[in-house]
Each structure stands twice: as C-alpha cells, then as structure tokens.
Amino acid sequence: MIKKSMLCLSISVTLVAGAATVQADELRFSWWGGNSRHEATNAAVDAYEAATNSVVKTEYTGWGGHLERLTTQIAGKTEPDLMQTNWNWLPIFSPKGTGFRDLRDFSSQLDLSNFDESALALGTINGKLNSLPVSMAARIFYYNKDTWAAAGLDYPGTWDELMAAGPVFKEKLGDEYYPLVLEGRDVMAMNRSYMVQKYGIPMIDESKRSFAYSEDQMVEFFTLYADMIKNHVAPSQKYISSYGAANLYEHKPWINGEWAGLYMWNSAINKYGDNLKPPMTMALGSYPIMDGAESSGIFYKPGLMFSISKNSEQPEEAARLLNFLLNEKAGIEIMGLQRSVPLNSYAREVLAANGTLNSSDLTVAGLVQINQLVKKIPTSGYFENPQLVSLFQENIEQIDHGQKTVEEAAKDFYKQGQRILRKAIKD
Question: How many domains does the chain divide into?
Fold first, then answer.
C-alpha cells in the first residue's frame, strides 16, 4: 500500500512539474501504443508543425498505466490539450457530457462529414460529442493455422464444436496445447456474446443501474468459464499467470503455437501473428451463432478515440491537429493503419489507393466479418468498468485456485457488481 501511495505521489509531482515547463503556446498531445504507433504519430506531428508553424509537445506511453496517468492529470487539471481516449473511459471522465470539449463546436477546424453518425453517437453524451472515434473494433476468433492443422481439426463453426476441440487437442498434441487462450476480459466478453445469443438480453441494464441477468443466469455465465477449463478449451488464469506478467503474445506457449487461438480485437491481431515462430501464421475463423439468435452479441465499440480537454486554452489548435491526422491526406498517409482501419471514409479511400489497405490483412478481413454480424443488442459503456472487470478477473482466479466454487464466485460477482454499477451509473 505504501509503494502504491508513493507511486501516485511520484506521478503527481512529475506531472505538475512537467506542466510547469510547458510553454504557453505549446500544444500538448498524448496517446498510448507501441513503437510503430509512436514513430508514425511523431512523424505526422512533425509534418503538421512544418506545415503550420505550430509547436506540439508529444507525450506517449504503452498501454500499461496510461489510464492511471491520465486520471491523475485530469484530477489535477494538467491533462494534455488533445488526448487519445478509450470508449469505456467516457462514463468515468464525463458522465454528464461536460468532461471534455464538444467537438461539434469546432466545425471550422474539424471536418466530421466523413464519419458515420452511428459511430459518432458512441462518443456522444447528453448531445455533446466528447470523443471522436478513430476506428471501430470487436473481438472475433482467430486461429493458428499450423497448430489446428496438426490437431486435424477445421476451425469451429459452433459453440459446441469449440468446446469439443479441447479434448482433441489434448489427445493429439499433448497437455500443453489448447484451442484458445483468453485473458479475463476476453472471457467476460466471449461469455456475454454467448448469453446474448441464448437469452436475447444485454448483461447490463443501464436504466435500472444493475445487471440484466438473474442470479441463476450469472451462475451460467461463470459456468461457461469453468467448462472451458474442464474441457481443455483454454488454459486457466492460474496457468497463464505462471508464465509471468508479460503480454500474451510475448509468452513462449503463444510464440511456439501451443496456445492456438484467440478471441481478440481485430485491431490488435497483427501483433500476435507477428510474434509467432516462423513459418506459423494466423487465420480468421468464423463467428459461432446459435440457431434463432437475433444478435451476435459481439462487443463492438470504437477501437480508440480522441478528445479535447475542457481545460485547454488552445482547443481550436487541438482541433486543427486532429483534423490533420484524420482528414488530411498527408496525415492519413503517415499514420497508415497504426490506429487500425480508419472510420473516416476519405481516409479509407486514400489508404486503399496507395495499397496500405489490403483485404488480405487480418485486421481488414476481421472488420469485414464484423460488419456482417447482426448487432441488435449493443454493449453498455459500463461493461468495461475497470472495477467490474477487475472483480470478474478476481473471481475466476479464485475458481482456478479452488478458493471459490462457481456458484460462490457468481454470487460474489453479482452482489459486488450491483454495487459497482449503482455507483458508476449516475441518475
């Protein structure tokens, strides 16, 4: 606890000190990502500065800790002028729509005409466009072509076929081989998809500030995880954690092809494929849909977004930079696919014309599949509430360690989760 407090204090002091050194006319711009995104974004900012005589201070990190950093900045009113944001952060930072600038106020600097209105609605709270979606994404199924071929199986087309693949992998390839590998939030999203298809209801009822599931349905939700582990469909969270705290694609079982599938964001798949030991490659699987299901239940959301600080003294300049990155050919070509396939229709035309947007790319092929799936039941913005996700992860880990039964974990998640939702969803 002391270490955590000291870390928060250190971050706060660093941010305040950093803010004090920023020049008055210097625009601050922050994002998270990997090295390739950093390099492309910095190059685009350089091009913008050269074209406009502006000065932009870039602040970028990996994913880990970025939310905590931004939370500290916003609390201290030291956040950047323009910042990359995540969809599920909107209820945290702007529950009433007043946490960020309304981007529609900057029509002279920022062209929104090439963005789909249904997507813009996902960044809108109380009629205010708080965040501009850059790309859209969903978790879908991808498989290691070589390992599945070695198991002698076609990719599953139904939930039952997916569950049946586990024993075959164990028998033909050994105990270390699994059809899928899933982190806690992946399990939560996949199980929700199954439940939406089966029952035709969302997981969260925002109007009631509670779960839409009954307690028995929540037991079924957790049983799905337990059945996957029992049937050798996916390694347990306990087993995955034995390899350390690295990203899944950095673990040896992934690199070696022992973990042979993912339920993963289409926007993130290439970094997994790139880390496989050659000549192994990934392939897009089909999405299992139950007979009679009215919705696929996929978690379809903005891959990431951009917001302008409500405290910014240069909001028009921030809007101009954002317009350059998303709407102008020079910025579009420099950025490429570093923030996935652009939502902006003009950007897609530019990238298709120069060969960057290729239908054989797994990200693009995944997006085509996603666009074909029925999405009648949208996912609540509170589904990825950090406390709720952490609580789910904690409970399935306790199942793995034998500290709770499935029923006990479901009951605890239901009870504590209701409290989290009541507090998070404002009247």
Answer: 2
* Residues 179 and 263 sit within 8 Å (Cβ to Cβ): no
- Secondary structure of residue 85 in the 3-state scheme: strand
Q: Go through 99-121 and write b for each residue having 16 or more CB atoms within 10 A of its CB, e for each that does not.
A: bbbbbeebeebbbbeebeeebbe
Count CB neighbours of 25 within 10 A: 10
User: What does the pLDDT look like over 342-356, one tens digit per residue?
Assistant: 999 999 999 999 999
Whether residues 56 and 101 fall in one domain: yes
Residues 184 and 65 in one domain: no
Contacts of 177 (CB under 8 A, 6+ apart): 147, 151, 169, 170, 258, 260
The alpha carbon dihedral of 397, 142, 305, 322 has a sign of: positive
The alpha carbon torsion through 266, 267, 271, 272 (nearest 10 deg) reads: -20
150: domain CATH number is: 3.40.190.10
Cβ atoms 168, 153 nearer than 8 A: yes
Q: At which residue do the structure tokens 């504590």 appear?
A: 416
Structure tokens at 391: 């609580």
Q: Which domain, by its residues, includes 329? A: 22-136+302-363
pTM (two decimals): 0.79
- Coil, helix or strand for 305? strand
* pLDDT at 427 (0 to 100): 60
Q: Does a cis peptide bond (omega within 30 degrees of 0) precede residue 279?
A: yes
Residues facing residue 284 across a β-bridge = 142
CA angle 31, 32, 34 (to 5 degrees): 130
For the chain, which ranges sit under pLDDT 50? 1-22
Helix (H, G, I), strand (E, B) or coil at 129: strand
